[in-house]
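Case study.
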Amino acid sequence: MGETKRVTEAELISQAANGDRTAQRALYDAHVDRVYRLAFRLAGDEDLARDFTQETFIRAFQRLRDFRGASALSTWLHAITTTVSLNGLRRTRRIGARETAIEDAESLGTERRVADPDLRDAIRNAIDRLPEGYRTVFVMHDVEGYTHEEIGAALGIQPGTSKAQLFRARGRLREMLAPFAGAWSA
Amino acid sequence: MNDDEKFDQWLVTAAKEYHRPPDDIPRQAMWEAIEGTLNGARVIPVAQNGWRRWSTPLSAIAAALLVAIGVGGGYWLRGRNEPVAPTSVAATPSRSPATNGTLDVALQRHMADAEALLVAYRAVDDQTDAHVRSWARDVLGTTRLLMDTPAGTDPSRRRLLEDLELILVQIVQLPDSVSSDDRALIDRSLSRDQLLTRLRTAIPAGIASGT
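After joint prediction, the assembly is written out as follows.
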């Protein structure tokens, strides 16, 4: 089953690299949700997330012949997504400038510990205040569930560096969220 | 469970709310924009933000100021009836009004460093040694830093830095035992983007690699 899927994606990649729009659309459909989620988590802004997602796929399709196949296509796409998003954010300097859709998060089953709006704002502000490298690793690992190997491949760093940055990010967050210590020590 | 573990566990749960994406992803609208670009149509960015709104007028103002200073300086020199010494103009890359001399020098040194790295990379045979990868990681970091400065806002420099960044990420990600295919693909990207040529064009004579 897995083998069949892999071959199918390999064929799609080959066709898409030759400009086959149907194959490109199939690859887009298969990966767009994860790419958009990552872009949105990093940008915190709907319009920017759309721009970054579009740019990611445009660059990917234009460079698909360079895809080595040594890693999964998703890993390669996420590397482009982080590059495009971080570059875009540096340009626009709009990290955390808009309200997020936290208020609409009713479908999550984790609400009871984060229901306090002050705490939610404090968490968001604390994450926004992390240095870019820490924030990126933290968002990819703790929020979106990437492994350190995937993060390393996407950011061009060693998995060990990713672990160290996550450790430091959590440490900084703990300092910044100290006034809310009761929320987790209870 | 100690306090650290409690905090980490709580944080992972709490942080799921951070920049939570909407449930409705605009898949079709994004695809149409992508397809339009791939078909050669111009794409209008969704995010019309402050930087984009102001960059063009600011560039125009900066260009106008430069012209005014040039013309005014000319009149001032003529008014003093002194012969104007011929100015020796070296062949330097185009200069963005937004950049200053220090950044220009830093950027040029970085370009020289990047060129030296790419030459070293090509000189290594089948294996890309750890030194080259470590060097590439350093250059990658500096490239990203420079992209965040006014020096990185000039469109042609920006494109050069972005192309350089992509190549560096590929080199950094190379495994210990590199296949000839891996190298061939990077080499092809290097040739297609004419990266070395563009780097050399951007480096004025006399600037040497800082390493």
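Observations recorded in class. Residues 94-115 of chain A have pLDDT under 50 and may be disordered. The first helix of chain A runs from residue 2 to 17. We will return to this complex in the next lecture.
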